[in-house]
Amino acid sequence: MDRLNHPGSFGFGVKLIALAIFATLLGATISSGQAPTPLLESKMSIRVTNQRMEEVLRQIAAKGSFNFSYSPDAIDVKSRVSINATNQSVREILNVLFDGTVTFKERRKYIILVKAPPTAEKETSSFYLNGYIVDELTGERLPDVSIYEPVTLASAVSNKFGYYKITLPALPDQLKLEVRKSAYTGRTIKINSRKNSYYSISLVPDTLRPIPSPEPKMTTRRDSIQPKVEIPVIVVSRQPEPDSIVPLQRKERKPEPLSESLKYIRDGLVYAFSSARQLIHTSNISDTLYRPFQASILPFIGTNQQLSGNVINDISLNLFAGYSLGVNALELGGGLNVVRLDVYGVQAAGLANAVGRNVSGVQLAGGLNLVIENVDGVQASGGFNVNGKDFDGGQFSGMANVVGRDVRGIQISGGVNVAGRTLYGWQMAGILNYAHKVNRGHQLGIINIADSTNTTPIGYFSYVKFNGYRRLEFTTDDFNYGNITFKTGVKKFYNIFTLGTSGFINGKPIGSLGYGIGTARSLGRGWMLNADLVLNRVAIQKRFWQQPQADHLRLVVALEKKLSNRLALSVGPTLNFFNSPYRGLLEGTGSRRNPLWIGGVPNASQSNYGWIGFQAGLRICNR
User: Closest by alpha carbon to 472, among 463, 480, 483?
Assistant: First the structure.
């Protein structure tokens, strides 16, 4: 008794109990690995002949380790039945026993049996079909099979046990079920009756499809809204488009890097905003459905129901986000519009538009327009326009326009314009224009970059890799003893960046930093003529950041003679204008010859000077 009441013993006992509980829970977690099989899906074999219903139910319950719950008034338990079932689910056995007169559902360790309502009550509203979908050759039950009615857009997906249940409206005169699963031949089933029925469906493998080898490893995702459905993540992006035809033999085509990368973004948006059932339907169904109008709150809450990813609409209205196969006239969205294939007409979204193939028309977005392939029309966004392949028309954005291949038209952006292949038009950007090749039109921006160009880029800095004009010059002139200058662009128009100094020699400026523009013309036989206009900010005092402003404007006309493919000499006269609050800055140039003054020799009262001087130097050429 003393030991049992000892505080230490009590604490030790509590620890032992807690440890035991933890070990029990851990063992249960490890052993459970997978969710337990539902009672209705558990399989068993039973064979009875002319026995009472209550005795048959007792045997089934004993074999399945569960109990039935029912009212004897609702079920004729004294009726005699016979059944011969081998390795069948409890659901199948009960369907045979009651032949649709009883409905059943499971709750913990009970299966509840309820008398089905009279058929007449359902004829004016709806009815349901349920059953299993199996492989006709192996008898294996097939999960993730799409079942849908193309007129009413009612749909269902078989669960991991191959079981489906679809509710259909009773009003249409003709109803048919379409059954689809990837790698299986589709089936069309006409529905003649309008009553609740148990109907199993068999599918035949599609032997014409190539067998993938090896099969990719797949992970699963569980839908938070419909938790009984699991889908393979990989089906979002690896299935062919619904209307594509894969030839038996074709030449390997060079991959489109931008277009391929954008597909991952599109698939990520589809995966994020679609339900698990929608993604399974997208993977299974290659049929195209049409509707003149649809409205949705989210992709899985709308008039196109779970088949929105397989429907082309003329007009589409989306409150927060929408998802469809295509648009033929107009799509408006408060947040996000996602279209698997093509858009014709107008597409506008408060946040972003994402289109899986082509756009022909007008695309407007507050943040982003994303098109995997081609655009023919107008794109405008407050943020970004991104196209994987070709663009024809006008592209306008607040931050960036990016096209993977050719641009025919105009790109205007507050930030960056990119044409991945060829530009046939204009690029105008607040920061950067880039094109692989400029065929027609011009680049107009602070920075212009191209691999090659047939036209003239206009900007603060232009660089053309292959057929551009570049010079690195080391020169001397009557203002600075030494200058280093870089010229870049094309011959017709290039940018000039220059730095000059005379050291700390008395009577001369310390140095200068300048920017300018120029043009060049080939004279043949290695000769070239340049005309450069450069404006320099001049440092006169050692603490030049504290001095008053001093500017030097210089026009240089120089003759270039090539010494080799990479070296050239240049020499020519200069026309100079100097503005400075300093008086007589250029008076007394020592032993050097005075320049040819314009407007007379400067004196102590002058702060503006003009003169004709010279420049000579060595150039390193790009070609």
Answer: 483
The answer to whether the CB of 247 falls within 8 A of the CB of 241 is no
Residues 570, 577: contact at Cβ < 8 Å?
no
Residues 527 and 610 in one domain: yes
- What is the rounded CA–CA span in Å between residue 608 and residue 574? 17
Confidence at 274, pLDDT banded by 50, 70, 90: confident
Q: Are residues 585 and 545 in the same domain?
A: yes
The parent domain of residue 150 ranges over 119-203
Q: What is the residue type of 498?
A: T
Q: Are residues 273 and 409 in the same domain?
A: yes
Q: Does position 308 have pLDDT exceeding 70, yes or no? A: yes
In tens, the pLDDT along 156-188 reads 999 999 999 999 988 777 889 999 999 999 999
Asked if 511 and 403 sit in the same domain, the reply is no
Task: Summarize pLDDT for 197-206 with one digit per residue, the tens.
Answer: 888 999 999 8
CA 234-389-385 angle, to 5 degrees, is: 90
Say if residue 325 is in the same domain as residue 444: yes
- Residues 431, 492, single domain; the answer is no
**Does 475 fall in a domain?**
yes
pTM, to two decimals? 0.74
Report yes or no on 616 lying in a domain: yes
Query: Please, are residues 420 and 436 in contact by the beta-carbon 8 Å criterion?
Result: yes
Q: What stretches of 108-229 adopt beta strand conformation (E)?
A: 110-115, 126-135, 146-148, 155-157, 163-169, 175-180, 187-191, 197-198, 201-203, 220-222
CA–CA separation, 230 vs 458, rounded Å?
Answer: 56
Q: What angle do CA 390, 393, 395 make, to 5 degrees?
A: 85
18-35 pLDDT, tens digit per residue, is 455 455 544 544 444 566
Structural domain ending residue among the three candidates 115, 135, 165: 115
The token pair at 620 is 């390193």
In three-state secondary structure terms, 485 is: strand
**CATH assignment of the domain containing 96:** 3.55.50.30
Pair 277, 319 in one domain:
yes
- For 382-429, what is each residue's pLDDT tens digit? 999 999 999 999 999 999 999 999 999 999 999 999 999 999 999 999
Residue pLDDT, tens place only, 440-499: 999 999 999 999 999 999 999 999 999 999 999 999 998 888 999 999 999 999 999 999
User: How far from 547 is each of 504, 537, 541, 581, CA to CA, in Å?
Assistant: 16, 11, 7, 10
What does pLDDT average to over the chain?
A: 84
Domain count, the chain: 5
Domain boundary among 70, 91, 115: 115
Residue 90 lies in a domain: yes
